[in-house]
């Protein structure tokens, strides 16, 4: 993995943390998600003439990816309705790299080195450990179950996105078409479900959704491009370092306590990042 790809994935992780936090902070989380993805689709449509549509795009994998991403767009805000950001997000993101590593090995024969396996394990354990400080209580256990389902969705779309990007002429073209499709699909379902009233929000929510939409498509474009350049397991693991940024956002924006537990998790994640980068 080149330094450029490595740094790009970490940038995508930061963007991912920002837009997830915006969904959690927003009032009607389903409406915020719909606006976020719709704004992202609008930006993608503006970019499409510069990217182009390629005949060799794997349309079947593109359609499958749009479907998985759309389900994810509804599962995520529902999970945030039943659990804290600091509990749901680490569970949702922490399990995905392990699932992606197994899928990559069995589907495309990507066998990571011992050092990479150790790095993925460190990252996943460090990310998952963040959730231990936010134990689910009562009805919040539903948030945990949703987070586990989201982890499976993340792993699924990561593998499908990687295959689609690699089999298409342009990985970036695949990513742009993906963000157009899933945003429109999400918005249409919300329109059918909630009606036009779901999109009638105040200026603060609209501004938050615009920022989140920009961060979301940036994170997706970078991630899909990186999946065409580097092994799925390492890309997935590095992307989940976004939990570090969520921890900072939770601490300074949501006023959640930063203690020894979070510091220990951070050290473990940094160790995982180092092992993945060094590819020992």
From TrEMBL:
Membrane topology type: Multi-pass membrane protein
GO cellular component terms, A-Z: plasma membrane
Hydrolase among keywords: no
SUPFAM superfamilies recorded: Multidrug resistance efflux transporter EmrE
Keywords: Cell inner membrane, Cell membrane, Lipid A biosynthesis, Lipid biosynthesis, Lipid metabolism, Lipopolysaccharide biosynthesis, Membrane, Transmembrane, Transmembrane helix
Segments passing through the bilayer: 30-52, 59-80, 117-133, 145-165, 171-193, 205-228, 234-254
Domain EamA intervals: 142-276
Localization of this protein: Cell membrane
Coiled-coil parts of chain: none
Biological-process GO terms, alphabetical: lipid A biosynthetic process; lipopolysaccharide biosynthetic process
Primary localization class, coarse: membrane
Keyword set includes 4Fe-4S: no
Pfam families: EamA
Domain of life (superkingdom): Bacteria
GO molecular function: transmembrane transporter activity
Name listed for the protein in its UniProt record: EamA family transporter
């Amino acid at each position: 993995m080149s330094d450029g790809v490595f740094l790009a994935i970490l940038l995508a992780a930061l963007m991912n943390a920002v837009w997830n936090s915006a969904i959690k902070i927003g009032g009607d989380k389903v409406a915020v998600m719909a606006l976020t993805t719709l704004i992202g689709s609008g930006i993608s449509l503006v970019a499409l003439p510069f990217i182009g549509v390629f005949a060799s795009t794997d349309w079947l994998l593109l359609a499958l990816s749009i479907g998985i991403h759309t389900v994810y767009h509804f599962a995520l805000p529902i999970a945030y309705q039943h659990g804290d950001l600091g509990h749901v997000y680490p569970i949702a993101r922490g399990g995905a790299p392990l699932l992606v590593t197994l899928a990559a090995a069995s589907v495309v024969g990507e066998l990571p080195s011992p050092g990479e396996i150790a790095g993925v394990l460190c990252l996943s354990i460090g990310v998952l450990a963040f959730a231990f400080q936010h134990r689910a209580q009562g009805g919040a256990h539903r948030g945990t179950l949703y987070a586990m389902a989201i982890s499976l969705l993340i792993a699924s779309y990561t593998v499908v996105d990687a295959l689609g990007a690699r089999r298409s002429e342009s990985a970036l073209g695949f990513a742009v078409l993906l963000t157009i499709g899933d945003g429109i699909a999400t918005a249409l379902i919300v329109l059918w479900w909630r009606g036009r009233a779901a999109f009638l929000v105040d200026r603060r929510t609209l501004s938050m959704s615009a920022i989140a939409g920009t961060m979301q498509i940036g994170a997706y474009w970078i991630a899909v491009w990186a999946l065409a350049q580097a092994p799925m397991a390492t890309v997935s693991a590095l992307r989940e370092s976004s939990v570090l940024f969520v921890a900072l956002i939770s601490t300074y924006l949501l006023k959640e306590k930063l203690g020894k537990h979070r510091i220990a998790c951070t050290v473990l994640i940094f160790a995982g990042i180092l092992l993945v980068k060094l590819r020992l």
